[in-house]
Amino acid sequence: MTRKRWRDLTPPPSKDLFIEPAYIADQLGLSADDFERYRNLGLINVTVECGYGEQQDLNRVKCCLGNRVWEAMVDSEGAVAFEVTTYLRGKLAKLSRGR
């Protein structure tokens, strides 16, 4: 017996979505060069989710490096509408690395 998984059908994020890497690096407390180096090494995990419903025009961007997490709501032109940077402690930091 197979199980079907139902998901909300939302369009994929725009391929034109662009946020300046130097801006994200600054939010994570890194230089632009270190950010690029860590990204190339696969140490930075970036997730982009499409908004739906009331937030249809916004994309949620989440960028994780170790215990540092930068989350933002970004419109299709790359303008940041809302952002927050958090530093996870203890078990939460270990759990976020596994995702």
List the domain count as a whole number: 1
Strand order of the largest sheet: 1-2-3-4
Look at the structure and give the mean pLDDT.
79
Overall morphology: globular
Name the helix and strand elements from N-terminus to C-terminus, one letter apiece. HHEEEEH
Task: Report strand %.
Answer: 25-35%
* CA-atom Rg in angstroms: 15 Å
How many helices? The count is 3
Task: Give the distance, in angstroms, between the N- and C-terminal Cα atoms.
Answer: 28 Å
User: Helicity range of the residues?
Assistant: 10-25%
Describe the structure.
This protein has 99 residues and is of the alpha+beta class. It has one domain. The chain is 23% helix and 31% strand. It has helices spanning 21-27, 32-40, 91-97; strands at residues 44-50, 58-65, 68-75, 80-87. The protein has a four-stranded antiparallel beta sheet, with helices on both faces. A hairpin with a 4-residue loop joins β3 and β4. The longest helix has 9 residues, at 32-40. The protein starts with 20 loop residues before the first helix and ends with a helix.
